[in-house]
Amino acid sequence: MDPLSARRGRPVSRLIAVALLVLLGACALQPPAPEPGAPEPRPDYVPGPSGIAGEVHDSLGHPAVGAFVYAYLSDRGGLRGPADFGAVVDEDGRYFLDLHEGQYFLVARQRAAGAPAGPPRPGDAWAPHPGNPLEVRSETTTRADFRLLAITQPLIMKQGTLTSGDTGFSGQIRNAEDLPVSGAVVMAYRDRDFQRMPDHTALATGEDGVFTLYVPDAGSYCLVARTRTRGQPVQGELYGTLGSGEQACREVRRGEIQDLGVIRVRPYRQ
Questions:
Q1: Per the domain annotation, does 129 fall within a domain?
Q2: Phi, psi at residue 18, to the nearest 5°?
Q3: Strand, coil or helix: what is 127?
Q4: Domain range spanning residue 242?
Q5: Each residue of 91-148: pLDDT tens digit?
Q6: Does some domain include residue 92?
Q7: Measured between alpha carbons, how far is 98 from 120 in angstroms, rounded to an integer?
Q8: pLDDT of the residue at 141
Q9: Comparing C-alpha atoms, which of 31, 267, 43, 262 is closest to residue 142?
Q10: Distance between CA 155 and CA 162 in Å, rounded?
Q11: Residue 204 sits in a domain of what CATH number?
């Protein structure tokens, strides 16, 4: 080959090489083909009756037969107390909530005793939906699945909610005999009016009596621990605060989980 032909061949070779590189790069950017038999990803919204539907499984992945899914119009009560709407989970682990358009806060619960209502207790399982609040659209079914966890285990949710966050209080509930109290709930109020609904609540304590109460903002909170979650305190109920008057309240900074030590509960006397 003469030098002129060689010189003419070099640009063509370069063009071919560049084209191959572009082609290989384009192939690399393509998403991998789905494996045979792989399930199609389920959309969050599908055409159908207005409401929310999905599946509920326990921590082992089994259908949570007999669990309940509750929908609240507000999360002010910490997704506790009577719900605005509810549905039971069937033998296939499925449920459907017939709802109008709007936004709802969902939580799935399975009580060890099988009862449809009552405060969370050790042995129960529950799971607030991490996407709360969920939107319901006209003639559309919103999909929301749940994996239940024991109430003594931490759950992952948005910052500042009932089950996680970076601001709040921790401690232990003990009785007059200095024994840990299980099934106690710590409640936070913005003032010392303990006769109304609490502003924030913690998960019920386990056998070790340990709690963590998350709050959405820094500030002053007045705390009370009790073994019933609704209504006025009743005679004999285990009940306790951090102290009398202003001593019942604590100031917490943003990003601080303040250790309160022990909250002592004793039978309530009217």
A1: yes
A2: -65, -40
A3: strand
A4: 168-267
A5: 999 999 999 999 999 999 887 765 555 555 667 788 888 888 899 999 999 999 998 8
A6: yes
A7: 25
A8: 94
A9: 43
A10: 9
A11: 2.60.40.1120
Q: Angle CA(268)–CA(270)–CA(236) in degrees, nearest 5? A: 30
In a 3-state reduction of DSSP, which class is residue 201? strand
- 């909610």: which residue's tokens? 161
Residue 18 has pLDDT above 50, yes or no: no
State both tokens at 237.
């109920």
**What's the CA dihedral at 20, 23, 29, 30 to 10 degrees?**
-140
Q: How far apart are CA 104 and CA 74, in angstroms?
A: 7
Q: At residue 64, what is the residue type?
A: A
109 and 197 in a single domain? The answer is: no
**Which three-class secondary structure state does DSSP give residue 105?**
strand
Using DSSP bridges, classify how beta strands 51-57 and 146-147 pair: parallel, antiparallel or unpaired: parallel
Query: Is the residue at 1 inside a domain?
Result: no
Q: Tell whether 157 is covered by a domain.
A: no
119 and 186 part of one domain? no
CB contact burial 169-183 (16+ within 10 A = b; e otherwise): bbbbbbbeeeebbbb
The 3-state DSSP class for residue 250 equals strand
pLDDT reading at 16 higher than 60: no
- What's the total number of domains in the chain? 2
Is the pLDDT at 8 greater than 80? The verdict is no
Q: Which of 74, 244, 262 is nearest to 169 (CA)?
A: 262
* Sign of the alpha-carbon dihedral angle for 116, 144, 152, 248: negative
State which H helix or E strand residue 62 sits in: none
Question: 100 Cβ partners below 8 Å, 6+ apart?
Answer: 50, 136
Which residues, 6+ apart, have CB-to-CB distance to 230 below 8 Å? 80, 81, 119
Averaged pLDDT of the chain: 77
Q: Contact at 8 Å (CB) between 57 and 148?
A: yes
